[in-house]
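Possible regression after last week's pipeline update?

I re-ran a chain I had predicted before the update to compare outputs. Posting the input and the new output here so someone can diff against the archived version. Not blocking, just want to make sure nothing changed silently.
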Amino acid sequence: MPAKWHKYSYTAQREERKTFILILTFLLFLLVLFTLIHNHAVTMYRIQAETMIPTLSPEERVISTPLYSTQPVEEKGFFLLASAKRGDLVVISPANTDQPGKLKRLVRPLVSFITFQRIIPFSAHDTPGKKPVIRRLLGFPGDTLYLESGILHIKPAGSSHYLTEFELVDRSY
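New output (post-update):
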């Protein structure tokens, strides 16, 4: 609480107002920076299913970036850090997602920022069938796949014979 003499001093009031506006501007800058980074560079997902055990367990968090893709750079329209390989984990976004209204799109990053991403209102992640899923990348366009006794067999594009997924992937999982 300011001292009593502040309410009588024009200079002190001006300094308090300037400090308040500076803090508010800094918080607004942080919000905009967070929103840009979160929407275009790095996104965090929470694992909810047990399908990726032992690699990922339920309630673990995964950081994903769209700058890592299997599509050529010309199709994506921006710089890529690296291309995906067999065995990598990828985030698959649903094809038909309803876009929220303008007010919801403004409120969501603000609440997410203030609550340190503990609360994300109006999120498609809450609706079954509309949330992104994390899967292991095993086949590419042009590959032929078949599953026999729980083992996936892959014939890479341009190859004449099938190999198991474990023979094609560089690391074990």
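Follow-up from reviewer: compared with the archived run. The beta strands are 43-46, 61-64, 68-69, 82-83, 89-92, 133-136, 144-148, 151-155, 163-164. Marking as no regression found.
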